[in-house]
Amino acid sequence: MSFSLDQPFIFVDLETTGANPERDRITEIGLVAWEGGEAREWSTLVNPQTTIPPFICQLTGISDAMVAQAPAFADIAAEVMARLQGHVFVAHNARFDYGFLRNEFKRAGLDFRARVICTVKLSRKLFPGEYKHNLDAVAARNGLSADGVRHRALTDARLIHQFLVKLRQELPEDTLAGVLADISRQAGPPAGLDAEMIDRLPDGEGVYLIFGEAGQPLYVGRSKQLQRGVLAHFAPPGRGNKALRIQQPISRIEWVSTAGEFGAMLAEAKLLKSLEPSLNPPRRGQAELCAWRYLPNADGSAQVQLVHAAELDFGREAGLYGLYANPREANHTLRKIAEVHKLCLVRLGLEQAGRRRAAPCSAMPLGRCRGACVGKETALSHQARVSAVLAKLALARWPYAGAVLIREQNPGSTACDLHLIDHWRYLGSAANEAEMQVLLANPPPGEFDADIYKLLNKQLREGSGLKVETIS
Questions:
Q1: 273-310 tens-digit pLDDT
Q2: Where is the GIY-YIG domain (predicted)?
Q3: Alpha-carbon gap, residue 34 to 83, rounded angstroms
Q4: Architecture of 195-275 per CATH?
Q5: Domain boundaries in the chain?
Q6: Active site residues
Q7: Confidence (pTM)
Q8: Contact call for residues 42 and 178 (beta carbons, < 8 A)
Q9: Class assignment of domain 9-184?
């Protein structure tokens, strides 16, 4: 593919409220148009219509007060589009800037496409022996400087422009043109995938859903970088690629963007349960989900009772131990526990007492029972041992009076997810307060789910830094 160095270029840098193009917004645009050897600059602050996180304010120096009177992107979308059209789009880590602009244009009802050059890729291609290729390193290595403060849009756009100008001065024209043609060439999508489908996938964290030719769910996955996570399933197998290879024809790909890992894990668990995709490992069945209930009493006569989640609210019931996919698993596990700790099968309730008074259980003659069934161990002593052994399997009690809101804020972004949880039941998530009010007004019934319970219990127990708010 030929590449003319005489065509118009536009060097682009954006400042944003964070790194997620679906959840964050642009706060500043800097453009340097380069055509016929002449450079024309343009920049503007943009009102993101949301607060700017403190981390971003510190990095860029752009505050809420500075953008308060600036235009919203929708108000300048037509002008920005006119400035970009007909130019080769050049940016440092171009997928970031290009992705943000495409999403902002989409919200404004416009479709933006351009030939893209990433100067990170350009630097790596031309200087493979160098370790760092961020803009600071590129500027220092090439002696570039620009008026203004780093991490402001126009300053950074000027540096990117200077980099290409310097390369044009130092490299043979055909060498530079060949490299630019190579890095700007759009690689075809993997077989069975539509280029537009892949292009729409964001870089942020979330869950993706891959559907087969007939619309059936094939796979649900979670990734910190959605596009990279999806493409890994269609890349050639290799040492660094452990993703499940998908070879079936694909009809569509959907995704759920999240503010962080916790929300992604919740969404993944919910989708795996509801969709049962054919290529994911089978989930623990809910239909026969059961646990042992054990309620010690004053005379030591308590016995275990197998109870089912379909009949009992495991999120509210006390004295529950273990979570089992079915009664067979529950019985097998408890019998192994009894064998290891020499618990009486009759006292546990796993065997019926013999017709003879004080008849031993089947484990007694084998030396696997301390004799609670024949009076060698008191009922209260046996009950205390059972309680101590089962304590390790106890289902955690819900630590709050009622439902709670778990607020998951991305520290480097405006993206914030609100998760509604009640007695270990995940009721849903919202991206803002207004959506949460709708959810609170009509919460779904929800049900106890073993995978959700384990996820929530681990996160709350380990002090993950998530903000928990009780709901009055």
A1: 999 999 999 877 778 999 999 999 999 999 999 999 99
A2: 203-281
A3: 11
A4: 3-Layer(aba) Sandwich (3.40)
A5: 9-184, 195-275, 290-393, 404-470
A6: 151
A7: 0.83
A8: no
A9: alpha beta
